[in-house]
Amino acid sequence: MVQKFKGPKVEEMKKDFKVLLINCNTMLDTLITAGIGTLSASLKQEGIEVKLFDTTFYKTRDKTGDEVRAYTLQVKKTDFKELGILPEEGDVVEDFRKEVESYRPDLIGLSCIEVTYSLGIELLEAVRHTKIPTVVGGVYATFSPDIVIKENCVDMVCIGEGEMALVELCKRMRASEDVTHVQNVWVKQNGMLYKNPLRRTMDMRELPFQDWDVYDRRRFWKPMGGKISVTGTFEMNRGCPYSCSFCVNSGLNKLYKGLGGYYREQEIPRLVEEMQEKKEKYNLQFVYLVAESFLTTSRKRIDEFARLYPRVGLPFWIEARPESITKEYVELLASVGCEGISVGIESGNYELRKNVLGRDITNERVIHAFELLEGSRIRVSGNNIIGFPTETREKIFDTIELNRQIKAKGVMVSFFSPYRGCALREVCELEKYLKEDDIANDYRLSPTLNMPQLTSRELAGLHRTFPLYVRFPKSEWPLIKICEGNGPQAESLYQELSNIYTEKFMR
């Protein structure tokens, strides 16, 4: 292969170095990602210029994730048009091509997830003729480097954490030094492929505060609890101490075993300091805390958060596992402004939850967690997933029955998407529920698997009627079942029942 990035001799070294980062995001999913912010900040610390090309505001699909969730009665309808936020009129590929031509970066870095990978590659292909070196990172690249590196438009792949790796890569390129031995990075050069090992995970204290200046200010507007607020995302933890089989953290924990482990926690005083800084600079109204399970930590750390967070004084949203919820924690969180908690139920079938998902928690403990939250002012949503391998219609109704008992304010339901990195992906491939090179679908939009006992069409029908089954009396279930189907009659009846549901349960 042609060595595209062989630079000039050291004496001719460029002092300036420019990186164009691509945030290949799904349409109008405005919640900013902490990863882009820390990546940009890490580069700028080294005197590297950074610009971001963001696909968020381009019309790259027919419906947004929020529109689908509103249609399926999981969230209240929100309208970005009120804020003048609409998809861009221009073509995303053509605009990217123009951006590259005007900015003339020394390196293009693509960050994407599985569902945006195809779009990301389309963008890189559009500028391949420029011969600007490219590097692809993110979860999909981490677990599919063999696939990604084969793309003609990809020169390098970053596996795992990108901050230290990308900084080292850029410094070497700026100094016209050899780049074939940068840890975490696979490099194609002169027909050779250099597969470099992973470096140890970094201490979160080493991370700079996020750089949000690279973002379009529209990215800070996020629907939360039925209203649109200026929302900031902050990384409280990185990774998860658990290894549930349906989550990519199972793969990350395995990948970093012996290398410091993937799960780490940010120091609370430092976290609060960054939130204070960002609140003042960006006029934040809401905080979203990135922690796979907020309460899965020491009591000392939770107490420290409760003591220091009032300095921020903004409502915030967290995620938690049912078994981590206690009366004391509920009272503590409510006292410092916790507005919402998403609680992972996943499945209402205990055997499936324990043996397939790796979540050994009884239904009774799940119910107890929601009972503890019921009397608080915290908005509670139960997160459910349908379409697991071996799951049947009967087992999905076990999940519906459990949701009927817990009476959570919000009923969330997603499709199981076998993203690369999660342990269940291998099971799905072995059972021929998908092919090895298949890209998993967006968990909000459509099922990926087509299983003999539960087809994708059946799953789609259960997905949109799930909240109706949870909230409506069983005497209405025959009507709801009609709504699972396709066609004018099913749609008309679904709209009728949806209007009743919205009026009664979503005020």
* Count of distinct strands: 16
CATH topology heading of the largest domain = pyruvate-formate lyase- activating enzyme
The percent of residues in helical segments reads 25-40%
What's the arrangement of strands in the largest beta sheet?
Answer: 2-1-3-4-5-6-7
Taken as a percent bin, the fraction of beta residues is 15-25%
- Outline the biggest β-sheet: 7 strands, mixed
The secondary-structure class comes to alpha/beta
CATH architect. name of the largest domain: Alpha-Beta Horseshoe
Radius of gyration: 23 Å
Unreliable spans are 1-13
Look at the structure and give the mean pLDDT: 93
CATH 4th-level superfamily of the largest domain: tm_1862 like domain
Q: Indicate the overall shape.
A: globular
Give the N-terminus to C-terminus distance in angstroms. 60 Å
